Amino acid sequence: MSKPGAGLPVSIDPSAAAAPFEQLRAGVVEAVQSGRLAPGDRLPTVRALAEQLGLAANTVAKAYRALEADGVIETRGRNGTVVAEHGDAGRRALQAAAADYAALARRLGVDPGAAREIVDAALHD
What distance in Å separates the CA atoms of residue 55 and residue 34, rounded to the nearest whole number? Predict the structure, then answer.
């Protein structure tokens, strides 16, 4: 496990079209997927990272909330924020999409068997 903030491999381009919080979120996801950040690695505190990147603390907090909602990182209270231990980002994205699909199928009144048939057909195309 790394020290908090030890060389977080993310940078922000102020001239980029993407908002700084999105650049930070995408940068952390890419670092996790590439293995530059490993499960259990500690991330800097919101304030420390905001200072390091020249961002507002609220911007970093927003990115951290989005990353936590996506299951990429987890906050462990006084023990800090770390890269999540389970699954890869791609699998979590598919799980989230599946949950959204299931919720939509329920709202539309599609029975589970028919919903699975639709997914199977899409996977075989």
Answer: 24
What's the predicted TM-score (pTM) here? 0.65
Total number of residues shown for the chain: 125
Q: Are residues 77 and 107 in the same domain?
A: no
Q: Would residue 2 count as lying in a domain?
A: no
Question: Are 26 and 58 within one domain?
Answer: yes
Q: What is the pLDDT of residues 13-41, one digit of tens each?
A: 999 999 999 999 999 999 988 888 888 89
* Nearest residue to 38 via CA among 92, 84, 102: 84
Range of the domain at 36: 20-83
Q: Please spell the DSSP secondary structure of 79-93, one letter per residue.
A: G-EEE-SSS-HHHHH
113, with CB counted inside 10 A (0-12, 13-18, 19+), is exposed
Q: How many CB atoms lie within 10 A of CB 49?
A: 24
